[in-house]
């Protein structure tokens, strides 16, 4: 059975805390998402650092869309790799907020992740 996202892509402002974190420190938001999507195989700090480095050449969205794909595959959400890349390329902050909130809704404590960051 395919699951629906419990948070809409443009529901960024529904959670002001996550919205602000993503606006000013997207590397933290992404690092926390990626650590959980990868089941703790790499720390949020490592993911966040790579995100910043790729952002310096404008390619951070390529990295973040792979974690979105991992999430929908892991939790059986609707999605496709092409759409994931399109969403992250066009609206990176909204995509990160949606993923972050989705994981929170699944019971993850995002500030702790799988292992402390």
TrEMBL record:
Source organism (scientific name): Triticum aestivum
PANTHER family cross-referenced by the UniProt entry: DUF614 FAMILY PROTEIN-RELATED
Classification of source organism: Eukaryota, Viridiplantae, Streptophyta, Embryophyta, Tracheophyta
InterPro entries in the record: PLAC_motif_containing
Designated name of the protein: Uncharacterized protein
Superkingdom per UniProt: Eukaryota
């Amino acid at each position: 059975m395919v699951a629906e996202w419990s948070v809409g892509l443009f529901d960024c402002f529904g959670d002001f805390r996550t919205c602000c974190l993503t606006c000013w420190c997207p590397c933290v938001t992404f690092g926390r998402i990626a650590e959980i999507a990868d089941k703790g195989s790499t720390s949020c700090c490592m993911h966040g650092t790579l995100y910043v480095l790729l952002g310096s050449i404008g390619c951070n969205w390529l990295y973040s869309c792979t974690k979105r794909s991992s999430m929908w595959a892991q939790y059986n959400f609707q999605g496709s790799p092409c759409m994931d890349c399109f969403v992250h390329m066009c609206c990176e902050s909204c995509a990160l907020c949606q993923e972050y909130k989705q994981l929170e809704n699944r019971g993850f404590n995002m500030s702790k992740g799988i292992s402390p960051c």
